[in-house]
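Below: protein 1.
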Amino acid sequence: MFIRQKKNKSGSISVQIISKVGGNYKVIKTIGSSEREDQVKILVDQAKLDLISLVGQSSLFISEQDVQLENYLNTLENIQIRTIGPELIFGKIYDSIGYNAIEEDLFRHLVIARLAFPLSKLKTIEYIYRYQGVTIGLDQVYRFLDKLNDKLKEQVEQISYQHTLKTLEGEIGIVFYDMTTLYFESNEEDDFRMNGFSKDGKHHLPQIYLGLLVGLGGYPIGYDLFEGKLFEGDTLIPVIDKLTKKFNLARPIIVADAGLLTKANMDTLAGLGYTYIIGARAKSEKTIIKNEILSLQLNDGETKVIHKTDGNRLIISYSEKRAKKDEHNRKRGLNRLEKQVKSGKLTKQNINNKGYNKYLRMKGKVDIEIDYDKYNADKQWDGLKGYITNTALSPSTVLEQYKNLWHIEKAFRMSKSDLRIRPIYHRLKKRIEAHICLSFAAYSIYKELERILHKNHSSISILQAAELTHTMYQLQIRLPESKKNKLITLKMDELQKELWKIVSSNYI
């Protein structure tokens, strides 16, 4: 509604409250008329008061243009408003990496959806329809997943590797390998999903192993999947050998944590011509080596080299910060054990080498007690960490390269939290493999976004960037005169503008 001043044939001016309904104007109320300007002003003021009463709002004046705009907006439908941020940001990076070479639109939709809204496949197709205007049936998605891994995994890995090679300026001289467990929300086991040692603490649920190989900085090279009960050390050689052959890598230095340290692995790697840096289990060394380690008397930040009979070097470092952390963890573990012993909850089955259970021992035939001598003896190891290598690298370089393993740990965190790769609800192996393939591609895009944000000194985190895409909207309207459809991108806020500027300027 709005106020209209209508000039009459008599020369007077009528003051009216008008409403436009369905394109027609209707007089709601005539306040009065007058030829005198001061009286007309009084009538207009009265009309404003009446208008407030009629529409229940505080606006002092509603123009005809306002009414027209309001009426038009009332005709808009939800389908005309779309979230374009995910495609605008992640789609741009998707293309820049080279995934647009994959001639499967559904692959693109599923990868970008995992980046922006990591949901179940059912929720994903709802998102694709709601925000992309693309109708996809659930059966269509499952049929695609059934063939995805066999059809696209090789291509996805190849594209990711080529991008990593480009990012690292054409040289991959060192690679990092680690494993993690992915659990399922089901108690059913099969030949693939099996109960085993869970790094997620979900020992009661079946799981699989994901082995991930990355370059410096955590940029992805390739991955592989293994059944859930496999010993993780048995995965190192198959993955390294397969991926280095696939991408023709010239025997890079292999960096892995202590969980993958076995004599068989080191012998095989050396036999194949690889050099390696692997976290050492210093406490598991032979007595003569352990005594030598404990006699070193290292200062903070100092390293010493012990030459082993097998030709490897054992590099031992000491950190006061690590020593304080080790002591804190030991005390916390002891306190927990003391409470459990006091409560009588522990049995002889609890006596093992898992965590701080190593401090337990039998007292008689039934009772459990804590071996405080063993606990106190462990104190001398606080702050010490070892590294096994057959490289000729200096001790400081070995430590520096090993510390880069945090990138792969970060990759797992990102995949598990930001991309919600777990838990996995699929049951069929092909669909599980497809789910991981989609997540691997999504991780590659995440890493690239992280790289360009850092390059441009932006304070925007990758998680924040994903959230910013949720409210980048586009409006589809039909022009009243030409009857043509027009897409209008709604104004972004300052952070959205910054994100879009960074992405668009890096990929022209």
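Below: protein 2.
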Amino acid sequence: MNFKLASSNRAIGKVTRTALIVVLVLVFAIMESAPAFAMEAYKGNLGTEKNNLTLSGDFLTSTKADKSKYKTAKTKKAKSNKANSKKNNVNKKKTDKKPSISSLSAVLYCENTGEILFEQKSRSRIAPLTTTKIITVLLAIQNLQLSTEVEISAEAVGFGGTMALKEGEKISVENLIYGSLMLDSSDATYALAEAVSGSDNSKFVNMMNELAKNMGCKETHFTNPVGTPEMDHYSTANDMMQIMKVASSNDIFRKISSAKNHKIKPTNASKERILTNQYPEILKDKSIIAIQKATGSKEGEGSILMSYNYKGLKLVLDVMGSPEDKVRENDAKKLIDYAVSSVRGIKVISKGEKIDKAYIKGGEKTRVNAYAADDGYAYLPEQGSKELISGSVEMDEKIKAPVKKGTQVGTYVISVADDPVNKIPLIVKEDIGTGWLPSKIGISNLGTVLIISAILLLIIIYIYIRIKIAQMKRRTARKRKQMAYQKALRQIEIEEDRRRRGWNI
């Protein structure tokens, strides 16, 4: 009897352990499928209208940054440890030899390290020509709303330009900026100046010079808003680099100066315009953040000014003093190649590396791996410590199914001395279709199947246990009846034996 009871208990114990395993599977399925409520949302600023210029910090001082921060600043604790695991992967210097350029003047500045990497007569006064328009555009961005309509004056039309504005035409500030930067159209630029300060040209010129002074330009003086050559209208490669540094930090300027095409709807005086950037070949290089050129008519004139970002290596360069575009462009390429080969780059993450998981709302999979879309580098001066490099993950919480392969779901931010220096998109490597109804609360299709299967299995186990218990009760009842029957038989036998012996009961 005891043996049978022990066997029954062991059977129920096995069933109980099975049920426990099922419960653990259920918990795992729910946890794996649950949304990542704690993920920090990636908040991009592209496409937003920001009219505030950055006119502080290094933009108002010398290009020589405070390098002491690279030695003493505390390292930001990253959400990911990828930065710490890759710090020995250093892009070794290829060369220290300075490039030889044909242009009269040039300067190359690295924003990552705060160093001037190359300069050649960078303080020599040269006519900035139409690169002057950068200052005019910045003042327009600073003082006007992009949607404001400007009525074109006869004076503006008189400057001419490929935009071919007409007297009395009404056109928005935004479209005038597109004309100024994309087409180098002087009529559009002068119209912006008039929109800021009215017909008083001297008032606007004073604003230009004041802004240049605030940017740290010590050898710059403007006399007109479009860059017309005049005796007292001059600048230097170093000063124009400072101006471009500020300009390229502004979202509006950066977006418009690097745009390849732009459509302008019909105005009161013109049909629809399709603008095409004047630098189509140069803009094939996707590393260009902002660019402005000026073509001179004689020796010592002409320039190319650009902001460049090569895998997080942020450069600002100005090449001046050559009337030939090809010469300036070739010199600019030499300077960029020199910066890439000479600045110490440390690979923090690799292209295709799994970084984190992304939450896909309403997806057949609600948690998917996010991979680095490109190599991620940090750049340091020679005295900079690698311990200053950190990385953090910013995942987008608003990704909804369906999701195509290659969709960006977050960003990996690389920082040096707590300052963000590079952002690498995080993408998914698979198509994610729309999930079943439970996906709306963060449970994937697989999770749903596992949960339903677990619930069904638990129901089956429960029924099995109830059946086993019922069987045990019936067996126990039968045994009790048998025992009672055996006891009664023995009692009868005792009584019969007493009667045979004549004993009194």
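The chain has three domains: 2-33+448-501, 66-86+350-441, 105-347.
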